[in-house]
Write a structure and sequence with these properties.
single chain; Nucleotidyltransferase, domain 5; five-stranded antiparallel sheet; two-stranded parallel ribbon; 9 strands; about 40% helix; about 15% strand
Length: about 270
Amino acid sequence: MQKKSKTYSKFCEFKELVEKESGKKVKALRSDNGGEYISDEFKDFCKEEGIRRELIAPHNPQQNEVAERKNKMIVGAAQAMLHDQGLPLHLWAKACNIAVYVQNRCPHRILGMSTPEEAYSSKKPDLSHFRIFGANVYMHVTKDARKKLEPTAEVGIFVGYTDTPHNYRVYLPDSGKTVVRRDIKFQEEKAMKCSLERELHLHADEELLVPKDELQDVDQPQDEVHGVEESTHTTPTIRGRKRLTEAERLAQDAEKVVGPPTAQRRQR
């Protein structure tokens, strides 16, 4: 939906689709006081259909906290996916669509670890077609769509799914168009490598922001140690540096003063 003026028509489409698929009626609609929701056309439609309106108070989005929190989660997921693969920001709508698509097929604690899709349709969703968002893909070009000496494949970027299983939306950077394809090959290993490299760069940048004094203080032993016991847990690390336990620090100090243990000296 590119314009808010299409809110009424989109809501009518949504209502018809949901009621036919679920067999239930829309009984209430909660929204803010935006002009797209309080138009006379929208009000008359809700009265005819018997839909109760719940308008929140102005400047109080917390009254509609479920929808606001969900919007925040969708935008956050889309933002992470775009920056993870270094994609242009104008693909934000496609990233939001795929974020909703994936979240509807993920287990939810409120639903007893069932998925929203399964709770809605009573069918377990198929996840075999899931792919990494932003992965490069190679698409086969049929003979009817090319000339004799033209390339037999196109390169694009995976940006979404369709209602038909195993059909994918592919963005073509050269033309700026989004097409639907089926016979494609994904370069998911390259996408995963790109994601890991970006994560390593972020950790390296964090290391540069840490003051040197803080790193030095981590490895300095305490002045007084009482009841030192060796820990059986995994040795913790702080910002990529190994943090020694108190027993290990004391052992290192003793080795510097009196030398290594007798057994090690005999081996030498």
